[in-house]
Amino acid sequence: MAGMRYVITCIVVSLSMAGAAPARAQTPAKLPVVATFSILADFARNVGVERIDVVTLVGPNGDTHVYQPRPADARELGAARLILVNGLGLEGWIDRLITASSAEAPVIVATKGINPQKMREEGRIGLDPHAWQSIANAKIYVANIRDGLIAADPAGEAAYRANADNYLGKLDALDAEVKREIAKIPPGRRQIITTHDAFGYFGTAYGFRFIAPEGISTETEASARDVAKIIRQIRAQEIPAVFLENVTDPRLVRSIAAESGATIGGTLYSDALSPPDGPASTYIDMMRNNIRELAAALAN
Ligand SMILES: [Zn+2]
After folding, report:
1. From ligand 1's centre to the CA of 43, what distance in Å?
2. Which of 68, 85, 121, 180 has the fewest CB atoms within 10 Å distance of its CB?
């Protein structure tokens, strides 16, 4: 999909150029950047703006945990001058794909320098890859991406620094906004059920408890025992709402809601942005959507 959109964009650009007067100055070629999933791609666009072309491997509403790479992805990686990955085990498929593509571009691990949280999955403790759900961490992603862009394209350093500073300021404002909205939710109601365990960092950053019937990854199915345990927990702790997620099957949450009596809140965007016409097509809109949905279900 991402590859196709790239091709279409190029055709539109060349058609519109055909009728225009010859360009005065030669526009420098844009730096080809590959991001593994939509949230990283949005960060990159905010830092690179007009100097880069970003190809996203796992597009809107896609599930990065279980993604199956296509041959076109290897070609994109081969053509890239910079590759952006989340790390912390989110993209279990990326190392093999990079090797298969003979890509030579540097790989930036956007979570480098964050303090990783641990999570339990199927009884084992592993690292939680969903670090972008804390805005303080998102700022570290942006700084890593900025530094990667500067190293790959030193001529753009001033632009990358200015764009990153501008965007980091917006993230500071967003962080303050999220804290203000959370403060409106009574502390005893700051706990919800989601379909997979994607909000651990959000919970730590903003004082929220998320309980998920699946483990760390969408690869693992919740067992009947897990589901029964969650339903008992909802009743015992009077958890007010269960939430759907854009990247997971809604049936599990619907059945938990029906059996437990909890209400179904809106859809939270966890691991992917929405398409451009959706409510969460950028990281900032994603966080705003999520906080709006939480407040609507829990504030009173
Ligand atoms: Zn996830």
Report:
1. 18
2. 68
